[in-house]
Amino acid sequence: MGKIQNYLKSILAKTLFVAVNWLHKNPGIKIKKAFRKKYPKSSFPTWQQIDRFTWEVSFILNKNEYKTFFDTNGNWLQTKHYVSYYNLPNLIKNNFRSYDNFKNLQKVLLIEKPDESLFEFQMNSGNGPYKIVVDINGNEVNHKAS
């Protein structure tokens, strides 16, 4: 009888381990509904839990790759995607040129949050990578080494 009980305990423990791991790889219903509501035309969503309170989903929308973040209650936190420098508003481009040299520019990331939108200019010079972050008015918010 002892061997059977140990065997059943082992199976139960393995089943619980698999179930817990599965739950950590899949967001809750609230989060999935919030994502589908915010991005109904998205495709190929791939979920990843960032920490206990944050889920990231990578997806395709209009042939571009996006990353968006939700908390465990389904509240949208932010969305990021790369944009072409040449498609930026003139105000942003002109202000950027006053901060740095265009030849150091690698990529531009649009970061949308509930209360603000930012442009992150990912730069690289002889001294290494760095970022310049500006708001939608072109005002520098942050300038830091990566």
Automatic annotation (TrEMBL):
Species assigned in the record: Yeosuana aromativorans
Protein name in UniProt: Putative beta-lactamase-inhibitor-like PepSY-like domain-containing protein
Pfam families hit by this protein: PepSY_like
Domain Putative beta-lactamase-inhibitor-like PepSY-like residues, every copy: 64-129
InterPro entries named in the record: PepSY-like
SUPFAM superfamilies from the UniProt entry: BT0923-like
